[in-house]
Write a structure and sequence with these properties.
single chain; about 400 residues; alpha/beta; Rossmann fold; 3 domains; 6-stranded mixed sheet; 17 helices; globular
Length: about 400
Amino acid sequence: MGGLNSLVRELGKSLLYFQRLFGAIKTSQQRSFSRRRFLLGLLTGLLISACRRQSGLYLLASLTGVFLVACQQGNLPQNSGFQSQEPSSNNCRLVKHDAGETTVCDRPQKVAALSPRALDVMLSLGIQPAGYAEDTLFNFRQFDNPSEQIPYLGERITTQPINLGDRDNPSLETLVLLRPDLIVAVENGHALYEQLSKIAPTLVLENGVGKEFWQRHLQVVAQAFDREEQAKQVIAKHQQQLAKARDRLAPVVATYPRVLPIALTPQIEPISVYSYNSDAAELLEAIGFQLVLLEQYPHREQHQGISPKISVEALSQLDADIIIVLAWDHNNNLDHPQEAVKQRWEQHPILQNLPASREGRVYFVNSDLWGSNIGGPITDELILERLPRLLLPAVEGATKSQ
């Protein structure tokens, strides 16, 4: 009985795995020989592994799975908005990116975005994703309601992208089944570049936050899609939005110039100082605010990318007219962590005694947007839209009280 149970279990595993593999292999006419060899290599490795097991049941189950699913369809959800295309050698571009150079032909139709930052840049150029890896691992197979499932960027998505896992560990198996024409990666792109390139042409964008980085990302993706003119329009639009926000917030800058962005969870400590490492900090400085810095890190340009940790007591020693709290949750259980963080802040005696707290100039926002989880031209646009609504009431209230 034990041997029979083992056979059934292994047969089930093999059926699932080889169904997925053959779903990709059967369309191999659209792929190069090297990619077919990659898929068959995965298959061979599994069979060799099965042969080395101490029981012949594993080999039997694997082989049975192969023959049962060889004629079956692939098992990914259908997304009729995309079709893989045969690349044309007459319209190819050599695109330089952070991991090397990649040849991209025609205009890719099925594009996999392996990061929120990659998605931000793609959407700004009008490129819709066929597959997407969020910063959090979800248990559904497809973003069938992206406006509800993908924070901030989902409202601009018109497709139903396949869920490719999380950005740090995207599912290579699902990518193989998706058969994308192009993959755009950021955070884990270098580590996975060789494997990703065997699945589809891959672009790796430099890992960093702020305008300097996303403009480079924009140029790389725009070149791949032959949309350089559109990229120029995106940058020009950003400059106009920044100038408008600078004009509107000039009274706030004049009255309350010193701003401190910090990141908190509902546990309050440790507190991360985000003056050096967030899109929001860069935008605040560009508008004219003076970012509050730590004594040990007095020059922002020399310490970009760091998020120093401080205690509540150390926070009370910093001179800030305005505090912007970027709220987040360790376990990603809260859709609106700023509400939980605000509640804990208001219950903390030291935090409530800060001058900015007493005068009502502590603002709670979601770190997904204001921190470095996303980042890109759309992120900056959304922050610039929110900043006047967030900060102008402070100076308007001060004017009324005088």
